[in-house]
Design goal:
The chain has 3 helices and 21 strands. It is of the alpha+beta class and 352 residues long. It folds into 4 domains: 1-35; 42-54 and 278-351, Beta Barrel (conserved putative lor/sdh protein from methanococcus maripaludis s2 fold), CATH 2.40.420.20; 59-65 and 195-273, Efflux pump adaptor protein, beta barrel domain (Elongation Factor Tu (Ef-tu), domain 3, Beta Barrel), CATH 2.40.30.170; 77-185, no CATH class. The strands form 4 sheets. The chain has a 6-stranded antiparallel sheet, with no helix packed on it. It is rod-shaped.
Length: 352
């Protein structure tokens, strides 16, 4: 009976100790596995740095404008007798676009021209009589003054008739008209717009910090919305001062548009060159890691990853310039960045 009780006690003790033993072994085994995993090197790809000759670029937006643009108005009031242009058509400088009824002015001019003939004959006769001393000088001066007055009336009438005609001030494309023949117009009535689109101006602004790098005469390239084709232009003017609100300098470039591939009002994405080709390091953007002190990268030294603080310059679509912190020959780690820590063991999987 005594040995039986001892056996029962031993059995209970075994039941309590066996789970703890196996659980402890499992945990210990798991810990070893985890520690083992940490000791395994991480496979990475690297980029061996070499200086590249690149031209720093700066992207800015702009708007295309017509070389010349004007809203067309008449100089006088009257009834529109004829329209001589088609909407959206090309016109040449001096082309007659619109004619206002001038019948009354033409009649007055005809009358004035008839009176002029009479005054001219009177002056000729009086000049002969004056030489013969048949009339006084005052009579001759009176007839001459009447001739000069009728000449002035004729000039006034011809100017009034000219104002009944609307002519193109320059060659270009005329827009949509806002009236029809028979309409009564006033000087405030908009007839249409006229744009010279053989040349286009590209308006944009640059930050003041780039003012010494972008100059009049520089060539630029741009693309417009909905197209991948690159167009060229040349800067021809810049504003005389910095805009205080935006700290930018307004500039304009000009581009040829004789093939009518572009039109005024289009949005343009402009690429500006910030100086000449210079040796520099260009690295993939995804290699950068933001930190409180700025930005850092990881390089492979032996079998370890070493972090380096860097300073960046300009960027393009997928690369960034490194101005400080790296040297030629450094093996930059370009993937697995999220797993990187200073001193972590790494293994080269693929060189670039």
């Amino acid at each position: 009976m005594k040995y039986r009780n001892i056996g029962i006690v031993l059995g209970v003790i075994l039941v309590l100790l066996i789970p703890k033993f196996f659980c402890g072994e499992k945990k210990e085994s798991g810990g070893m596995g985890k520690g083992g995993a940490n000791k395994m090197p991480i496979k990475v790809s690297v980029l061996v740095l070499n200086a590249e000759f690149v031209t720093p670029n700066y992207q800015v937006s702009g708007t295309l404008q017509a070389n010349e643009m004007v809203d067309l108005y008449c100089e006088t009031s009257g009834l529109v007798r004829n329209l001589y242009f088609k909407e959206g058509a090309k016109v040449n400088k001096g082309d007659l676009l619109l004619k206002i009824n001038d019948a009354d002015l033409q009649a007055q001019l005809k009358k004035a021209l008839a009176n002029k003939k009479l005054r001219d004959l009177s002056v000729e006769r009086n000049q002969i009589l004056l030489k013969k001393e048949a009339i006084a000088q005052a009579d001759f001066d009176l007839s001459l003054n009447e001739k000069q007055a009728i000449d002035a009336d004729i000039e006034l009438l011809r100017e009034q008739i000219r104002k009944t005609e609307l002519r193109a001030p320059f060659s270009g494309t005329i827009g949509l008209r806002n009236l029809s023949e028979g309409a009564f117009v006033q000087p405030s009535t908009l007839i249409a717009s006229l744009q010279d689109d053989q040349l286009l101006k590209l308006a944009f602004a640059i930050p003041e910090k780039h003012s010494s790098l972008i100059k009049v005469g520089d060539s630029i390239s741009f693309v417009v919305t909905g197209s991948d084709k690159k167009f060229g232009a040349k800067i021809y003017a810049r504003d005389a001062s910095v805009t205080a609100a935006t700290r930018t300098i307004a500039m304009k470039a000009v581009c040829n548009n004789k093939q009518a591939r572009l039109m005024p009002g289009l949005f343009a994405n402009i690429t500006l060159k910030l100086g000449a080709n210079a040796p520099t390091f260009m690295i993939p953007t995804q290699s950068l890691v933001p930190v409180l002190k700025g930005q850092k990268v990881f390089v492979m030294q032996g079998d370890s990853a070493v972090e380096k603080l860097v300073k960046t310059g300009f960027r393009n679509e997928n690369k960034v310039e490194i101005t400080e912190g790296l040297s030629a020959g450094d093996s930059l780690i370009v993937d697995g960045i999220m797993y990187m820590k200073n001193g972590i063991k790494v293994k080269l999987s693929k060189g670039k």
